[in-house]
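Question:
Now give any protein.
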Amino acid sequence: MITELGSAFVLGLAGAGHCVGMCGGIAAALQLGGNSGKGITLAYHGGRIASYTALGAALGFAASSIDIAAWTISLRYLAGALLIAMGLYIADWWRGLQWLERGGAIVWRPVQRWSSVLLPPRHWYQAAGLGLCWGLMPCGLIYSSLAWAATAQDARLSALMMLFFGLGTLPAMLATSFGAGAVQGLLRRRGLKLLLGVLLMASGFWTIYMAVAHANHTNHGGSGHQQQQQVDDARHNHH
């Protein structure tokens, strides 16, 4: 569990530049109200992270409803592939995850129309509602993170993974909201993005390696069981 939660946090932290580009405008606008805007800003980010967590729990529960060994192993392969893809995305070496954003735009349009009535948020509950809607925006980083969290096949763990992903996005988003340019600059540094991207890819390759090892163990175990069954049948026929 620690590995998954650590990877989720690193993923959120590594996506700082992308998060600022996608959500930075609304995050900065929420703070225009001065001191009174701080509560609204925090409510917005709370709602945003809550939406990630709830979606993670739902997808983790759905994935856990299928109890088949081949399904579980396939999800582990998918988890590793997604981590590698997200590492490449963070490092700006491959932008293939953008196709998720194009597909997600279909879901986002009706949500965007509904959430527009909450702009500008004047009360904390309006900001929290806006944050809940923002979790569905067409963002390849969010969608791929949700797909990866679902591979845990456990509602609680998937929810925690998305919670830690959301917490990882907070430094960049709060820096944008409260005008901390130094923090934004640090999180956008090319060297840091490359380091975090490589760490994600390493985690992905390790996940695939463990999936292969588990699959081989399962196959060998299954072969041994079949051989034992054949021996038992032969003994029974002999008698």
User: Anything to note?
Assistant: Residues 2-213 form one domain. The CA atoms of residues 9 and 43 lie 20 Å apart. The two ends are 51 Å apart (CA to CA). The longest helix spans residues 190-238.
